[in-house]
């Protein structure tokens, strides 16, 4: 075998070896790579006990409630199957609104509610001017901005 | 810009600066390598003519 | 190994040097024009987004930078692999020349992304799969550059860094698919290979213009940097001393 062919095989072996190792590692750490849990997963008890975790979903319609003049706000986060009530005392991101995707970082309380220390908004990859968005909404397409 | 002006302008500004830095450093590197080599060749030629 | 004649010629350093010399400006000037056009179109012509308003315009510097950051890494790793397998000096030179440019674009992707994230998501940074793997990409670039120059013998440095570049390739599919495989705060790709893009044309064309402009810009810069690399690596070669003689044009 020529030296060059040997080097070719070496490089290919290293590449596949590393690829395999990383693939296996990723599989093993699958659940730790979950950046957020859905409300369904939260209700199923998947997040580890006692630790901070993130829950992600849509802000349920008509669920946002806030005392006037207060920073404290509460809302439901849903994956259209299950819902978790989130309580948050802080500034909400610009994109926060009903139907928007959000990710809340915090802890689950004993009564099943979620006390968030941080609420982030998530948006999807659709970009369009307001007229197009209105047209889509009028045609019966719901606001597409919210799939978490 | 709906309040987003500082965000938009800063990103475009940083990008422009980085692009310019890249042009300048690439040119400068080529020029400096060229000059160093020219000096070296001239020095070797002088040395050889003295032998 | 059997290679077409033009490839043999291209792989010869003096030939490549001559070609890069005249080709670079033909890439750089159109690039500047495209980037200027793209900036203007992105800032002024494109309509504001229904959701992010004028804030979405950051896409015009963020996406081209991110795209280039991975494209350049792929090229650098491919060049390194060629250098390792065929022991081709020019391939090592291309990898060395590409690295700093790639690192800058990765830096841009991260910084413009962070500035975009603050108002839209509510944070400059999260340790989520997409952002973290892009940061790892920056470390790979910096690692490559530092490893390459930390050997007394340049060839050893080329080889060690080249190996790092090849091994790091596994990060590229992670970066790309991270938003599809795992839950991430970063949204999925807007410009997809098989599906229709989820962005209207009047917003999309400046983006495509800038992706093309940035790519040509990189190509021109790469040729300039490869010229410098080749001259330095080949400084004892006869063809170099020939063109560096005083009074010789092009030297």
Short note summarizing the structure:
The complex is a heterotrimer of chains A (148), B (51) and C (251). Chain A has 148 residues and is α+β, with helices and mostly antiparallel strands. Chain A is 27% helix and 27% strand.
How are the SSEs placed, and which strands pair?
The complex is a heterotrimer of chains A (148), B (51) and C (251).
Chain A: H1 3-28, H2 39-43, E1 53-59, E2 65-66, E3 72-78, E4 83-89, E5 101-108, E6 114-122, H3 130-138
Parallel strand pairs in A: 4-6
Antiparallel strand pairs in A: 1-3, 1-5, 2-3, 3-4, 5-6
Chain B: H1 5-50
Chain C: H1 5-11, H2 13-45, H3 59-86, H4 89-120, H5 129-148, H6 154-167, H7 171-181, H8 201-233, H9 238-243
Please identify which CATH superfamily of the largest domain in chain A we are dealing with.
Nucleic acid-binding proteins
Figure out the total of helices of chain C.
9
Number-wise, the strands of chain A total 6
The average pLDDT score of chain C comes to: 90
Q: Calculate the mean pLDDT score of chain A and round it.
A: 84
Q: Report the order of strands and helices of chain A.
A: HHEEEEEEH
Q: For the CA atoms, what is the radius of gyration of chain C?
A: 20 Å
* Total tally of structural domains of chain C: 1
Biggest sheet details of chain C: none
Tell me the Rg of chain A in angstroms.
22 Å
Give the number of DSSP strands of chain C.
0
Count structural domains of chain A.
2
Strand content of chain C: under 5%
How far is the N terminus from the C terminus of chain C? 33 Å
Class from secondary-structure proportions of chain C: mainly alpha
- The CATH class name of the largest domain in chain A reads Mainly Beta
Q: Give the helices and strands of chain C as they follow along the chain.
A: HHHHHHHHH
Q: What ranges of chain A have pLDDT less than 50 throughout 5 or more consecutive residues? A: 144-148
> What is the percent of helical residues of chain C?
over 70%
């Amino acid at each position: 075998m020529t030296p060059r062919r040997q080097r070719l095989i070496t490089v290919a072996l290293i590449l596949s070896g590393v690829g395999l190792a990383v693939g296996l590692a990723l599989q093993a750490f699958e659940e730790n790579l979950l950046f957020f849990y859905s409300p369904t997963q939260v209700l199923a008890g998947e997040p580890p006990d006692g630790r901070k975790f993130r829950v992600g979903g849509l802000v349920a319609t008509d669920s946002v409630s806030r005392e006037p003049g207060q920073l404290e706000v509460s809302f439901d986060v849903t994956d259209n199957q299950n819902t978790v009530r989130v309580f948050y005392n802080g500034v909400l991101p610009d994109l926060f609104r009903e139907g928007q995707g959000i990710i809340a970082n915090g802890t689950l309380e004993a009564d099943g509610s979620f006390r968030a220390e941080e609420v982030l908004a998530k948006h999807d990859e659709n970009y369009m001017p307001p007229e197009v968005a209105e047209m889509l909404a009028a045609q019966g397409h719901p606001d597409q901005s919210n799939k978490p | 810009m709906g309040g987003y002006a500082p965000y938009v302008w800063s990103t475009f500004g940083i990008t422009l600066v980085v692009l310019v830095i890249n042009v300048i450093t690439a040119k400068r590197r080529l020029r400096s390598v060229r000059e160093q080599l020219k000096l070296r060749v001239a020095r070797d030629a002088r040395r050889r003519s003295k032998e | 190994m059997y290679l077409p004649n033009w490839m043999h010629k291209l792989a010869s350093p003096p030939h490549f040097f001559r070609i890069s010399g005249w080709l670079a400006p033909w890439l750089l000037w159109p690039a500047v024009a495209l980037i200027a056009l793209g900036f203007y179109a992105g800032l002024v012509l494109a309509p504001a987004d229904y959701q992010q308003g004028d804030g979405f315009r950051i896409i015009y510097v963020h996406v081209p930078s991110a795209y280039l950051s991975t494209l350049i890494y792929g090229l650098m790793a491919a060049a390194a692999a060629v250098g390792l397998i065929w022991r081709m000096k020019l391939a090592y030179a291309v990898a060395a020349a590409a690295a700093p440019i790639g690192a800058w674009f990765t830096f841009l992707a991260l910084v413009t992304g962070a500035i975009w994230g603050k108002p839209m998501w509510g944070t400059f940074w999260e340790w989520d799969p997409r952002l973290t793997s892009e940061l790892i990409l920056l470390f790979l670039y910096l690692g490559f550059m530092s490893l390459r120059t930390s050997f007394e013998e340049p060839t050893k440095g080329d080889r060690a860094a080249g190996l790092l570049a090849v091994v790091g390739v596994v990060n590229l599919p992670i970066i790309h698919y991270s938003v599809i495989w795992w839950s991430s705060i970063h949204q999925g790709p807007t410009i997809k290979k098989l599906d229709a893009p989820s962005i209207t044309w009047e917003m999309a064309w400046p983006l495509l213009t800038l992706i093309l402009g940035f790519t040509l810009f990189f190509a021109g810069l790469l040729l300039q940097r490869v010229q410098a690399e080749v001259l330095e690596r080949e400084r004892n070669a006869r063809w170099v001393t020939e063109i560096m003689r005083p009074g010789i044009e092009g030297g």
